[in-house]
Design a protein that fits this description.
Shape: globular
Organism: Methylobacterium crusticola
Distance between the termini: 42 Å
Bound molecules: adenosine-5'-triphosphate
Family: Belongs to the ABC transporter superfamily.
Protein name: Vitamin B12 import ATP-binding protein BtuD
Subcellular location: Cell membrane
Structural class: alpha/beta
Strand order of the largest sheet: 6-7-8-3-9-10
Largest sheet: 6 strands, mixed
Length: 241
């Protein structure tokens, strides 16, 4: 069996100035696996997402995507190799319609004989609430609808691995649960997922494994259900509402 991970950070050190935010971080996501990345505010979760996706060049270490070291590649090259990041805050184009925002996700597949409209219909079918808002400017969508739109955009890339940075941010609890139910469906279909979320209970609920980051280092990693059953850990990190 091919046990090589789809995505791996090996000894990644990264930051923004003199003092690194991440120090020697090792993370691996196997094919079809869903991994939840947890940690308190400022632990470095978003920094790791940026380092994995080419938005931030690590000072040291390797980032392997489907076997290739992409640590020194720009974000568009990493995306072209099959990594889709749904960033924190979603980064939508507010004046474009939801439909056009979602279409943008297919940029790397244009000219490959992919029926973009059919793919769009398939992606949107997962989000009944979004389907009714496709022709609205993205900026007028609710937070939940924008998050679903950003996720649909990510799916349009047919990624090898999907990175989600705080998908529940700013969402009402019911909407967050709805979104995580969709993520669980994706996981069941074999989509490889790395998800960061403050609602760790939700994130661990859909994950196979959890990784706990503390001040830029991995301090714990293991089976998601085991971590979820650890009351002290849940109380300390999971930011329960
Ligand atoms: P949060 O949940 O608050 O986003 P996080 O775990 O994602 O937390 P990061 O956003 O990775 O944490 O931030 C880790 C550290 O890096 C923090 O001390 C933060 O202030 C710092 N940092 C983040 N972005 C920048 C930046 N663009 N320039 C300088 N420092 C930054």
């Amino acid at each position: 069996a091919d046990a090589a991970p789809v995505l791996a950070a090996q000894g990644v050190t990264a930051g923004y100035g003199a003092a690194p935010v991440l120090e020697g971080v090792d993370v691996a996501v196997g094919a079809g696996e869903c991994v939840a990345l947890l940690g308190a505010n400022g632990a470095g979760k978003s920094t790791l997402m940026r380092a994995l996706s080419g938005l931030l060049r690590p000072i040291g270490g390797r980032v392997l995507l489907a076997g290739a070291d992409v640590a020194r590649e720009p974000a568009h090259r990493v995306a072209a190799r099959g990594l889709a990041l749904v960033p924190e805050g979603r980064q939508v184009f507010p004046a474009l319609t939801a439909r056009d925002n979602i279409r943008l996700g297919a940029w790397r597949r244009r000219g490959l004989g992919v029926d973009v409209e059919a793919e769009l219909a398939r992606a949107v079918a997962r989000f009944p609430r979004l389907a009714r808002r496709l022709d609205s400017p993205a900026g007028l969508l609710s937070g939940g609808e924008q998050q679903m739109m950003a996720l649909a955009r990510g799916l349009m890339a047919d990624p090898r691995v999907l990175l989600l940075d705080e998908p529940s941010l700013g969402l009402a609890p019911g909407t967050a649960s709805e979104l995580f139910a969709i993520l669980a469906d994706l996981r069941d279909e074999g989509v490889t997922i790395l998800v960061v979320d403050q609602m760790a209970d939700l994130a661990l609920g859909i994950a196979d494994r959890g990784i706990l980051l503390e001040t830029g280092r991995v301090v714990r990693a293991g089976d998601a259900q085991a971590l979820r059953g650890d009351g002290a850990l849940v109380a300390a990190y999971l930011g329960h509402p």
